[in-house]
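INPUT
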Amino acid sequence: MSPKALMKRAKEKGLDIIAITDHNTMANCSAYHRVAAKDDIAFINGVEIQTSEEIHLVALFDEADDASAFDKELYESLLPIPNDPDYFGDQVVIDSNENIIRCEERALLNSSTWTLDEALDKIHEYHGFCYPAHVDVHTFSIIGQLGFIPDDMPIDAIGITAHGDRDRILADFPYLEKYALIRSSDAHYLADVGSGYAMFYLEKPTVSEIRKACMGTEGRKLWNEKEEIK
Amino acid sequence: MGVRLNSFLEKISGVNLTPGIDISGITIEGGYVSDLLSDVMGSAQPHQVWITIMKHLNVIAVASMTGIPCIVFAKDSKPDDAVIKKAIEEGICLVSSEKSVFEISGILYLQLHQI
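OUTPUT
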């Protein structure tokens, strides 16, 4: 997904805010950020971390400095196993003109050596917003791997899939009621961008505002999908 | 049919991480092998030994729910102190073994079936 094509698609789908959440890396965030800025789309630095328990966590950062410092530590936490480009393709890092600058050496597909608890600590150390991804699927989800979400887990929301049935999810896991359920496309291909989305009432398109919306403070909130939109 | 837990732990050269728990009276009737806790919750049976490399604190709750008396952490993996503390509270024996999941399972299978 090239940044220009992504922004065009995001505009077509009426998305105001997007985050890219590559697997275990934020190396491409700055290029996408620049392109998004030109297209008037609010961009959030994101990443999908795969912990040592094979749980996928989404982390979002407002500050580029926090994001890059976190990304550096995340990269160091990956096992030093080289990527096999013949099998998995090249892990390219691009600039905002879509030129390839370099390729990531370590296989981004593997898990980080961080445990879930260690990953959560690191995300918070860099002021990140964090939620377990796609809890309504069996693979790489916190509920699949750990059976249930511990009550005292320091997470900010819960991620659900593009087409996940919200009522069904809450019926299966009533303890999720206390969390904001964030729906997203988790798009791996251009055609899937916008297939799932969340709507928030925010003052401005930032992670700190999304955090308030998930907590329901200061008038910010997450659209609950049933309420009519005025 | 069953195997004394003590005798199994001896065979796998297991290091008992919860020595305070009295396991002398425990007999095991089978084993379960999985690192997916949602799977263990749905399929493990009471009186089975659970062999895994998953070390998250949730293993204790899952063992407690399913009636598993003992968790064996394979490949010399050891959970942290919070997990051990919780296991002691719940009366679940934790063991670490240098052997692989495959070897530990094989040893238990042979013992159970007295081959």
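end of record. Helices of chain A lie at 3-12, 29-38, 64-77, 85-88, 116-125, 142-146, 166-172, 207-215.
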